[in-house]
């Protein structure tokens, strides 16, 4: 019988799945991790090396054990084990949730994301209905937006796609552009 942690882990992909399996197993043989995962063994091997370098896992021969559990969100690490810094969009997403009502300029000032990047991200999220326009732009004052509670789906920022759709990694759903949005 598969326990709940393993069942949930297998719904994820890539390094997210690997991290969830590590958390569920706690102590494991590498071959055990590979056999219960649908992630390629080379991907698992590379991520395990990064986790060891970062001090998250300890290895004793072919046995690994989790020594630093930071929760459900996997550590994003460089090859040397150091953390990958947050992206501008991750910072903007977090700021949108905290600010309640905001403009592109507010995101620029709050999290240091470039105005053009903030504008593109806000425009894309608004275009698919994730953000709501609260006040139209006026001369000298930028438009104000809000993230309604229904759209605050989790910690991971939605990502923009080439076809102008937006993928929400928290719910694993795509949002498509809607006709005429004010």
CATH superfamily of the largest domain: Winged helix-like DNA-binding domain superfamily/Winged helix DNA-binding domain
* Proportion of residues in helical segments: 25-40%
- Compute the number of structural domains: 2
The largest sheet has its strands arranged as 1-3-2
Give the CA-CA distance, first to last residue: 52 Å
Q: Tell me what portion of residues adopts beta-strand conformation.
A: 15-25%
What global shape is seen? Answer: elongated
Give the CATH architecture of the largest domain.
Orthogonal Bundle
Task: Assign the CATH class of the largest domain.
Answer: Mainly Alpha
Q: Determine the number of helices (DSSP H or I, runs of at least 4 residues).
A: 7
Structural category is: alpha+beta
Overall average pLDDT: 90
H and E string: HHEHHEEHEHHEEEEE
What fold name stands as the CATH topology of the largest domain? Arc Repressor Mutant, subunit A
C-alpha-based Rg, rounded: 20 Å
Give start-end ranges of low-pLDDT stretches: none
> Could you give a short account of the major beta sheet?
3 strands, antiparallel
Number of strands: 9
């Amino acid at each position: 019988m598969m326990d709940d942690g393993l069942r949930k882990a297998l719904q994820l992909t890539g390094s997210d799945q690997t991290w969830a399996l590590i958390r569920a197993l706690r102590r494991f043989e590498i071959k055990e991790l590979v056999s219960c995962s649908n992630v390629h063994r080379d991907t698992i091997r590379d991520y395990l090396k990064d986790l060891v370098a970062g001090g998250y896992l300890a290895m004793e021969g072919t046995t690994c054990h989790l020594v630093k559990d930071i929760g459900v969100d996997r550590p994003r690490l460089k090859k040397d084990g150091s953390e990958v810094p947050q992206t501008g969009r991750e910072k903007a997403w977090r700021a949108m949730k905290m600010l309640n009502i905001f403009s592109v300029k507010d995101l620029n000032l709050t999290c240091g994301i470039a105005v053009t990047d903030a504008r593109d991200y806000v425009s894309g999220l608004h275009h698919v209905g994730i953000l709501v326009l609260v006040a139209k732009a006026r001369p000298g004052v930028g438009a104000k937006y809000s993230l309604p509670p229904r759209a605050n789906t989790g910690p991971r920022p939605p990502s923009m796609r080439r076809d102008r759709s937006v993928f929400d990694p928290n719910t694993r759903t795509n949002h498509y552009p809607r006709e005429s949005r004010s």
